[in-house]
Amino acid sequence: DDGFLWVVDRTTDVIIVSGFNVFPGEVEDVLAMHPAVEAAAVVGVPHPHSGEAVRAYVVVRDGAHVDEDALVEHACRQLARYKCPSRYEVVADLPRTLVGKVLRRELRG
Q1: Which residues are paired to 37 by β-bridges?
Q2: What does the pLDDT look like over 20-61, one tens digit per residue?
Q3: Sequence-distant contacts of 88-95: CB under 8 A, at least 24 apart
Q4: Rounded to an integer, what distance in angstroms lies between the CA atom of residue 44 and that of residue 23?
Q5: What is the value of pTM for the model shown?
């Protein structure tokens, strides 16, 4: 209303699924709310029908266990269907810069 613009993610990180914009930070925040998830990172991967698909990389808390079905259910309760990751990968750690930002380019490659 006041003419200010806030950038919530890097424009290169925006995932476009069937013409809809998906901001990785929004999906990561929802995944991080799951009690077994310590950290999450989301990237776009090529998809033959929708252009891109959402893929999530999840770090599980020590001593916790989570399966893909639980993550799917958690995400679908909180997000629109096109924002829900189509695939989840549990990883030991996320690649980060020296200042702690997730290196999404390494997750894509």
Answers
A1: 60
A2: 999 999 999 999 999 999 999 999 999 999 999 999 999 999
A3: 88/55, 88/56, 88/57, 88/58, 89/55, 89/56, 89/57, 89/58, 90/58, 90/59, 90/60, 90/66, 91/57, 91/58, 91/59, 92/59, 93/59, 94/39, 94/41, 94/57, 94/59
A4: 10
A5: 0.86
72 within 8 A of 104, measured Cβ to Cβ:
no
Among candidate residues 54, 56, 30, the one with its CA nearest the CA of residue 41: 56
Tokens of 8: 């919530």
Distances (CA, A) of 15 to 9, 44, 65, 66: 11, 5, 28, 25
8 A C-beta contact, residue 16 and residue 52: yes
Joined tokens for residue 65: 């266990």
Q: How many angstroms separate the CA atoms of 51 and 78, rounded? A: 23
The string of DSSP letters for 15-57 reads EEETTEEE-HHHHHHHHHTSTTEEEEEEEEEEETTTEEEEEEE
Euclidean distance between CA atoms 31 and 41, whole angstroms = 9
